[in-house]
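Render this sequence as a predicted structure.
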Amino acid sequence: MTLSSVRDFWPGKVGYQQFPWMANAGTTAVFTSSGAPDSDWYARPEDNNNAHLPFVEQTHNVALIMYWPDVETSLFHGLLGVADPTVALHFRDGDFDEVVEDSLWLIGRQASDYVAVRRTCLDTVNGVRGCSFDSTDGQAWACVVGDSTMYGSFAHFQDLISQSQFAESWSHNGVDQWVYSASLTFDTTTVAHAWGRDSLLTSRGDAVLADGADFKVYPNPARDRVRSRAIFPTWGLFPCG
C-alpha cells in the first residue's frame, strides 16, 4: 500500500508528468488523468500527456488533488485547438475484493490494503468514471490509503471515510487574485490548499517546480519497492509490488 505525489509541477498547465499522484492498493494502481478518456485505459500514447496538471497536497496517507485549467497556456485553449479537460479516474473494480460507493467516495479493498477516492461527480465519460467541466471551473478530488494494521477492519475504514469532512470554495482577494480553496479532514489528518491566480491573466507565476520542491511517498520507508523513471521533460513514479 503506497501513496505518492508530485506537489507543485506546473499546476493548471498541459504537461507530460505521467502520474502527478498514484495510490497502490495491493497489486492495483489508482490515479486520475486529464484529457478525453478512452474506453480502454491502456489504449493511450506512451507520453501519457495531461491536458492540465493538478496541484497535489499530500500529508502522510491523505492527498488532496486540485484541478484548475489555465486557459491561457493549456493545449485546450491554444493554437493547437480545444482539447477535452475532463478528469477521469483509473479504478479497476475487478482488481478489488470489495468495492463500496458512499456518496462521492469510491472505496476498494484488495486483501488487507484499502484505498478511497473522493470524486467531484458521479458521471462517466466514454464508460470511464470522469468529470467534465468548462475552462473556468475547478475540481477537487481526494485519496486516502490504509490497511488493516492502521485501521483494523475494512468496515472501520469505511466508517472513517464517511465521517471525513470536505470543503471547497472560491474567493477574491479584492485586488488581483481569484483563489480556489479546498480541504479534507480524515481521521486526525487535515490537508488543505488555497490556489491563487491572477484575475486578468489567469495564470500563476510561481507554478514552476523549483529545485528541492516537495516530492512525497507514503509509507516511508515502504514495505514494497518504489521505482521512478525519467521521461523527458518530466518523470513518472511507479509503486511496484
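Summary. The chain has two helices and 18 strands. The first helix runs from residue 148 to 151.
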